[in-house]
Inverse folding.
């Protein structure tokens, strides 16, 4: 029997359908063979030989782009190739600053994208930042500049998947978070908090105390991390069991309740946050010891990840949605 054709993905295809490729897009108004979100690929691990993503990442935003890159690493075979093209934002800004009226107008259109719904640019990546994210996701990178059209400079990144334990952990953890619906893309400050937790968990290198501390930011994310680690160990993980208890207790909701109570008692915001973290550390010790939780019950609609920034933003929304003065 003949060998099956290699799987090649054209992600974010829009109307540019490539023959011999699996064309993917999130919009029903496209030439896609399958509808799929770029940051959440419904494809098996190590199944694709090549991925093209032309003029895509600027439509995703920073946090979705991080998950898109980890998903590309996951679905590519070892040594698989990823080609990304995106606006060269540095050169575009120079065109805007130095050009005439026509050039400035064209440059603005290249920065912001079309006004057609879903076609606007959410986040244009400087070259060094996208290179950093690609390497972090597990790719070797070669970059070049070219002119897409007049006054539309672009960057092309030719990438190759490299193998590594940290890269595999990063992709597996992000996949688990997507599967469990734990990534809060709609709230930037919570996405940023979860991103901090994920990066620190992946980089902790087996320092279980540092890893467990991140359960105070997101107990569910820490649980998924320790569950992945547990799968490669010969014994059950004490840390995974503790994170499961913390997640079951809605630890982030309890921290938010403590934070809100301190604010209502006129405690300064920073001190209120520190009091909530102190409660969290006590809950962590109780979880490790298999004891029952203590302190306030979970707040209503708490932030999905708890940091000083998410706590302050949550409290601000809570005040704004409260009863209006007579």
């Amino acid at each position: 029997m003949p060998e099956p054709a290699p799987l090649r993905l054209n992600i974010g295809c829009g109307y540019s359908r490539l023959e011999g490729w699996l064309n993917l897009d999130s919009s029903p108004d496209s030439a896609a063979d399958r509808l799929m979100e770029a940051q959440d690929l419904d494809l098996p691990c190590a199944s694709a030989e090549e991925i093209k993503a032309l003029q895509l990442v600027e439509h995703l935003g920073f946090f979705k782009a991080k998950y898109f890159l980890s998903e590309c690493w996951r679905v590519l075979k070892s040594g698989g190739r990823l080609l990304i093209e995106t606006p060269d934002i540095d050169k575009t800004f120079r065109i805007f600053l130095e050009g005439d009226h026509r050039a400035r107008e064209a440059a603005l259109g290249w920065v912001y994208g079309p006004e057609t719904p879903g076609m606007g640019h959410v986040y244009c990546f400087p070259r060094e930042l996208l290179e950093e994210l690609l390497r972090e996701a597990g790719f070797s990178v070669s970059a070049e500049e070219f002119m897409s059209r007049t006054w539309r400079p672009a960057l092309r990144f030719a990438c190759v998947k490299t193998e590594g334990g940290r890269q595999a952990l990063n992709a597996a953890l992000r996949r688990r978070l997507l599967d469990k619906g734990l990534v809060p893309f709609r709230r930037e400050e919570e996405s940023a908090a979860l991103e901090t937790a994920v990066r620190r968990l992946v980089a902790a290198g087996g320092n279980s105390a540092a890893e467990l501390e991140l359960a105070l930011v997101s107990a569910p994310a820490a649980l998924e991390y320790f569950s992945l680690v547990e799968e490669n160990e010969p014994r059950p993980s004490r840390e995974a069991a503790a994170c499961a208890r913390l997640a079951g207790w809605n630890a982030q909701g309890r921290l938010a309740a403590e934070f809100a109570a301190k604010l209502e008692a006129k405690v300064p915001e920073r001190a209120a946050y520190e009091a909530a973290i102190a409660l969290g550390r006590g809950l962590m010790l109780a979880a490790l010891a298999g004891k029952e939780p203590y302190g306030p019950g979970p707040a209503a609609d708490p932030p999905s990840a708890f940091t000083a920034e998410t706590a302050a933003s949550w409290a601000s929304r809570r005040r704004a949605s409260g009863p209006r003065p007579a």
The CA atoms of residues 101 and 190 lie 40 Å apart.
